[in-house]
């Protein structure tokens, strides 16, 4: 018989697992890893109404994507074009970024699988006599290691030609040059930290769902058990 067990700790772990997976996925897909040096204003950037120039635009560069602005003949029309600069894996700008993409992709796939499984932990608390929380926590720890490897290798690719075109000639491995880090990089770091927090917190979720109070509720014949 399936017993639906919901506790504050197990629900919090489930929500955190889902948030972490989505945060890492969005960061990976974003082009806002590097914010390039400002593009100088030109004659097409003059504002008709004020006669002054618009603020310089900062293009952004991701692991496999980029965002840049295209100015048209009409002064009021400026399009920001975002999309992948690499049509296939081999066209990613740096071998280090290729490794980063692999490590992050593996870590994110594990996190997404755990997030999917975590939804069903309310009904299923064990697999083959092993706690599903402990198994998921172990997988989250492994995913966190993959994410760390990817984030460590990413700055080593700042010396590639693509990064230099955005960050200037002084850009090199682990040196940003004229660039700055975008929100996607910080989101990936924050998600990695939360991944390890989730891995540790999974043990608390397991303790909460197998406590004596839960067992008492089961013995009383209750199928839906909600505990604070």
UniProtKB/TrEMBL annotation:
It is a multi-pass membrane protein. Keywords: Fertilization, Membrane, Transmembrane, Transmembrane helix. Pfam families: L_HMGIC_fpl (PF10242). One of its GO terms (biological process) is single fertilization. It comes from the Eukaryota. Its main location: membrane. It is found in: Membrane. The chain crosses the membrane at residues 12-35, 96-120, 132-154, 183-203. One of its GO terms (cellular component) is membrane. Belongs to the LHFP family. This is LHPL2 protein. It comes from Chloroceryle aenea (American pygmy kingfisher).
């Amino acid at each position: 018989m399936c017993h639906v067990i919901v506790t504050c700790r197990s629900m919090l772990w489930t929500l955190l697992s889902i948030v972490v997976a989505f945060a890492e996925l969005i960061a990976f897909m974003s082009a806002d890893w590097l914010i390039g040096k400002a593009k100088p204003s030109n004659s097409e950037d003059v504002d008709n109404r004020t006669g002054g120039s618009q603020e310089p635009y900062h293009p952004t560069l991701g692991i496999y994507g980029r965002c840049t602005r295209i100015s048209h003949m009409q002064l009021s029309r400026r399009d920001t074009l975002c999309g992948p600069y690499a049509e296939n894996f081999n066209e990613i700008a740096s071998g280090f970024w290729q490794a980063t993409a692999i490590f992050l992709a593996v870590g994110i796939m594990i996190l997404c699988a755990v997030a999917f499984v975590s939804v069903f932990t309310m009904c299923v608390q064990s697999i083959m006599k092993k706690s599903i929380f402990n198994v998921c926590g172990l997988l989250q720890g492994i995913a966190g290691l993959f994410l760390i490897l990817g984030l460590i290798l990413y700055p080593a690719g700042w010396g590639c030609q693509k990064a230099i075109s955005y960050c200037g000639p002084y850009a090199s491995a682990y040196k940003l040059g004229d660039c700055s880090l975008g929100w996607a990089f910080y989101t990936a770091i924050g998600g990695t930290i939360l991944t390890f927090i989730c891995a540790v917190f999974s043990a608390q979720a397991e303790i909460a769902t197998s406590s004596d109070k839960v067992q008492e509720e089961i013995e009383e014949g209750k199928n839906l058990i909600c505990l604070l």
